């Protein structure tokens, strides 16, 4: 039996939208008061983040144990990684080409020696410790507990896959543990649903702080960079992800509309991590298998950073244009190659996109690393766009890989995307 549709003014979408609007107004007219609202946004993000580790663990364990076939786990994971690398290459290229077409840095005429590199020294120090080997070693936690304490999603992913694999070998004893973990999973998702009711307050606090701290006027000549970046994000979602969805007979516009609640929360908080539990639940409702969702979404948060890749290459082009530095074709190919690696190495680090940019500039020294100072003030605005793009990209990845694996229920997908939350009659 179909549920009665909620009035629009009682939906999370409307509540978050009101929170965002009020936050913008407060930040614009009373900036000193607005910056004091930061704890509201930070508190909401912390509430969600405290649940992510256990939810990822429970979802992956039940998904892997439910498969009862480790060859299938490897096959799904392999297809996901192939998809991630192909789409990541496209996003890096689009950011690079888009930067040349839009020319956001033209006319700045900045001299490197005029910039204060101390403003980004913390990011430089983090980036200097990034390399592929240390990244792989970082996946292995010091202990099972430390993975959850540190909130390292890749470490939790490793533990969960091993745990689920072990369960498949224990017969009836394993089934009993499986049922307990599945029950815990339902409890944790219920807690997340309770926290999500506070999302409008979190979005209000985060957006009020951003506008109050920086203000629309602080963008000044950098508006071209911010505006151009959002144009590239929209282009990437509609054209690249839209084409990929079309191959699987899925409408990108319908999908984006389906996850509009989550996108608004990301808009307010500038973090896609805060909606990881919700997007995992929604992908299951759309007809993706639980095992596919459990593997693809958490992995995508580290390996499928479409928006971050767009940001990386466009930012490098912007800085080089602002300093009147000509990048050769070889330089640009190196930037793309380095970006493919650093985007993985920076995952799980606070300010990952900025660290990723720093590490790229350190490896490609033709563009002075102190040039990052130019975008430091607008990084928060760029971060919102890249987080929203990352979210859409990971959702699409889950749909595509599930369809590729022939584990996407198209009947369920069509019904859910037309009638969200209503059961099939």
TrEMBL record:
Membrane-spanning parts: 12-30, 50-68, 80-102, 144-167, 187-209, 229-253, 349-369, 381-404
Alphabetically ordered keywords of this record: Cell membrane, Membrane, Plasmid, Symport, Transmembrane, Transmembrane helix, Transport
UniProt protein name: Sodium:dicarboxylate symporter
Matches recorded under InterPro entries: Na-dicarboxylate_symporter (IPR001991), Na-dicarboxylate_symporter_CS (IPR018107), Na:dicarbo_symporter_sf (IPR036458)
Superkingdom in the source lineage: Bacteria
Presence of the UniProt keyword Aminoacyl-tRNA synthetase in the record: no
Gene3D superfamilies in the record: Sodium:dicarboxylate symporter (1.10.3860.10)
A GO cellular component annotation in the UniProt record: plasma membrane
Record's bilayer topology term: Multi-pass membrane protein
Keyword Nucleotide-binding: no
Pfam families xref list: SDF
A Gene Ontology BP annotation from the UniProt entry: L-aspartate transmembrane transport
Organism per entry: Sodalis praecaptivus
């Amino acid at each position: 039996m179909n549920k009665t549709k909620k009035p629009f003014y009682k939906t999370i979408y409307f509540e978050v939208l009101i929170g965002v609007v009020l936050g913008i107004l407060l930040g614009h007219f009373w900036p000193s008061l607005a910056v004091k609202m930061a704890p509201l946004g930070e508190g909401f993000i912390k509430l969600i983040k405290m649940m992510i580790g256990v939810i990822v663990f429970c979802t992956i364990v039940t998904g892997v144990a439910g498969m009862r076939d480790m060859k299938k786990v490897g096959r799904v994971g392999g297809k996901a990684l192939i998809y991630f690398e192909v789409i990541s290459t496209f996003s890096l290229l689009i950011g690079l080409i888009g930067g040349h077409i839009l020319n956001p840095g033209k006319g700045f005429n900045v001299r490197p020696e005029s910039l204060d590199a101390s403003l980004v020294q913390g990011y430089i120090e983090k980036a200097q410790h990034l390399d592929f080997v240390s990244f792989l070693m970082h996946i292995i936690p010091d202990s099972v507990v430390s993975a959850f304490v540190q909130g390292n999603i890749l470490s939790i992913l490793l533990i969960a896959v091993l745990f689920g694999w072990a369960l498949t070998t224990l017969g009836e004893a394993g089934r009993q543990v499986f049922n307990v973990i599945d029950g815990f999973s339902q409890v944790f998702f219920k807690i997340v649903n309770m926290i999500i009711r506070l999302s409008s307050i979190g979005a209000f606090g985060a957006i009020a702080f951003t506008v109050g701290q920086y203000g629309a006027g602080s963008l000044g000549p950098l508006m071209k960079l911010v505006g151009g970046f959002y144009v590239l994000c929209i282009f990437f979602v509609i054209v690249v992800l839209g084409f990929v969805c079309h191959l699987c007979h899925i409408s990108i516009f319908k999908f984006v509309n389906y996850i509009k609640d989550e996108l608004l929360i990301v808009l307010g908080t500038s973090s896609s991590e805060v909606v990881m539990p919700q997007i995992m639940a929604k992908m299951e409702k759309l007809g993706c298998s639980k095992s596919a969702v459990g593997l693809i979404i958490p992995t995508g948060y580290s390996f499928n950073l479409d928006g971050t890749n767009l940001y990386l290459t466009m930012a490098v082009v912007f800085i080089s244009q602002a300093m009147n530095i000509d990048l050769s074709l070889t330089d640009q190919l190196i930037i793309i190659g380095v970006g493919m690696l650093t985007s993985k190495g920076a995952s799980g680090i606070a300010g990952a996109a900025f660290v990723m940019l720093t590490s790229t500039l350190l490896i490609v020294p033709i563009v002075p690393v102190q040039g990052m100072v130019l975008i430091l003030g607008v990084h928060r605005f760029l971060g919102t766009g890249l987080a929203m793009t990352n979210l859409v990209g990971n959702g699409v990845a889950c749909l595509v890989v599930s369809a590729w694996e022939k584990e996407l229920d198209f009947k369920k997908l069509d019904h859910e995307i037309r009638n969200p939350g209503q059961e099939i009659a």
